[in-house]
TrEMBL record:
Catalytic activities: L-methionyl-[protein] + [thioredoxin]-disulfide + H2O = L-methionyl-(R)-S-oxide-[protein] + [thioredoxin]-dithiol
Cofactor: Zn(2+)
Protein name per Swiss-Prot or TrEMBL: peptide-methionine (R)-S-oxide reductase
Zinc is among the record's keywords: yes
Record EC number: 1.8.4.12
Record PANTHER family: PEPTIDE METHIONINE SULFOXIDE REDUCTASE 2
One Gene Ontology term of the molecular function aspect: peptide-methionine (R)-S-oxide reductase activity
InterPro entries named in the record: Met_Sox_Rdtase_MsrB, Met_Sox_Rdtase_MsrB_dom, Mss4-like_sf
Record lineage: Bacteria, Pseudomonadati, Campylobacterota, Epsilonproteobacteria, Campylobacterales
Keywords: Metal-binding, Oxidoreductase, Zinc
Length: 120
């Protein structure tokens, strides 16, 4: 499988499971209509209508497209990591039980891990 060329920062976050600084990502306060895709492999991950403002400093989604995101126990043993189900690229972490949306789920995603396709 061929992947997109990644910058050093994208490699640090997507392939080495890093985290971008809070409130620094281009998609944190971004609310256009469309689909968020994996920066590494272009797989559709999230619809824009699942994005919400959580105040945490990273793009937040309360639902992913079916089968697009995989949950895996984080190396720290306390959190659940989310990765692209197609390429395994690190997206961020998922949190449940915070009561921020009716789905009670927050996918906390690094902006550098995703791209955006505007609704036509």
């Amino acid at each position: 499988m061929e992947f997109n060329k990644l910058s050093d920062e994208e490699i640090r976050v997507i392939e080495k499971k890093g985290t971008e600084r809070p409130f620094s990502g281009k998609f944190n306060d971004f609310y256009e209509k469309g689909i968020f895709t994996c920066r590494k492999c272009n797989t559709a991950l999230y619809k824009s209508d699942s994005k919400f403002s959580s105040g945490c400093g990273w793009p937040s989604f309360d639902d992913n497209l079916e089968g697009a995101v995989k949950r895996v126990p984080d190396a720290d043993g306390r959190r659940i990591e989310i990765v692209c189900n197609n390429c395994g690229g690190h997206l961020g972490h998922v949190f449940e039980g915070e009561g921020l949306t009716s789905k009670n789920t927050r996918h906390c995603v690094n902006s550098v891990s995703i791209d955006f396709e505007k609704e036509k």
